[in-house]
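Fold this complex.
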Amino acid sequence: MTNNSTHFSSRRLGLVITFGLTALAMLYLSYSLPRLLPGDFVTAMYASSQVTLTAEQEAELRAYYTEEPGFCSYLLRLFTLDWGYSYAFLTPVSVLFLEALPWTMLLLGAAHIISMSLGFITGVEASWRHGSRIEKGMVGGMTFLEGIPEISTGIILLLLFALNLQWFPAVGAETAYAEVSLLTRLADIGLHLTLPLATLVLAYLPGNFLLTRNSMIMVIREPFVTTARAKGLPALRIRYSHAARNALLPLVTRFGLRLAFMITGVLVVERIHSYPGLGTLLFNAIQARDLPVIQAVVLISSLMVLTIILILEMLYRIIDPRIDYVR
Amino acid sequence: MCADLRRYLFHDPWFAAGFVLAVMFTVVVVLGPALAPFDPWDMSFAPISPPSAKHFLGINDGGQDIFSELLFAVRNTVVFGLTSGIIALCVGVAVGLIAGWYGGFVDMILMRVADILLAIPAIMILILTAALFRPSPWILALILAGMMWPTISKAVRAQTLSLHESLHVKAAAQIGGGNLYIIRRHLLPGMFPLYLIGFAAKARMAMFMEASLAFLGLFDPSRKSLGMMIGYAVKYYYLNIWWNWLLPPIVCLSLLIMSVTFLAISLEKVLDPRLKNSLG
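Structure:
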């Protein structure tokens, strides 16, 4: 028993150390890459931007960027939210970032919760009807959906529901300058959220559905499901409290793996619907060649993804202790 | 086994659909420049004109023929995806074989590296390098491949571990086959289905990434790409020209992604031994 638990914690410690080193490597990368640029940073940044600098400003900037803060003070700056100053938006980068972050989290969080629960339930129901016409139709529809990228879904929804039918607003996260009560404001936010959320759900749902269905089909053949049936348990109970629990695991395990890739979709969808999250901020920064903003958004959001994946790793080691011994 | 496989695959309507689409895109990619009626960089036409007999899809805001642009864009996106997919496949297979066959310390280090790469959002690294250095698409494809190989190598490694214990591999080692000989003659050909699945999945990911990066405006603006065309056209979505300007690149991109997705899903379904009995 003691042997087991030490084995356990050393594995977890290894995991934390690996992720810590990864974070450090990424920090170092974002510290050193701009310094690897040919020529000097100021020319590289401002030559291609729409700003013209006076000689005095240029000298000051040059002094600022050649002071070589060293990696440690760079880290210190990072932790004190001193991420530099955006010259396109004329605001500290941290302010821009923290303004945009809640919208992205709302969008991404809601999209994942809805697509996972919906995908799980439909997947379980489909596999229970394995071989029937409904199941084949669902699998077909989901496979088809899986083939449509977020860019296309987003634009089609935008053209259809915002432009032609005018059911939903085309841009923004809420109506600007509207002085309204909290309840109307929430409804307004919900209305603005619908289209980007629907796009993301349509993009994430098929993966969750197909994964659940495939693992459920395997689980249903296990002897313990037959036992449960022989005991005369109600079908709903067999499906969810016996079989589906085991199909839930791969869904959670795969989530961490797919998260790093799925970030791409959010950037694009936010841009299409002009949703004021990190994706739009990043897009605007790219358009204006605003390097401090690009750098901060890239670094901080990658670190956040890393943290979420680490937490998930820990979490499903608790849900399924077998993982610790398989590898 | 091979003929059996072909029969299996073409019985799957998804595979057939994906295959037909893939053949169509191959034709466009190979013959694209010859099929294009105009030079896609020629800006001498009347901007934003509707389709006519001469210009099938009309002219964009820069005075360029949209149909010609489309042909070149498909070509760029496909080539990017295939390049990145092939590199990722080669690296993934090599790393998976080495980690699975040699095991021990080598295995541990390689798999840790794979774990790390899986946790880093590839798009962020691509955006950072693209924004700072503006490298050529080839470099970006290479970087993307460098971030994508871990899933392939994990699958290959798992399969190598089980082949390690199989009789024919043990026999080969017993009669004195060297490491390289066994890897080349017994392990490499034994996992053929895995390569197809991995390659289709990675090519899909890379094409999606290319479209997203181009959409966000991170490529050289003179390089034609489906994502870039969508990015420019979406600015004018409220004009009544979306159906000839915005829709074609969207449909092309969707068909392209669909083609690889259908191939990947149906290959996985037919070739994954665990799912084989559930084909139904």
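The two ends of chain B are 20 Å apart (CA to CA).
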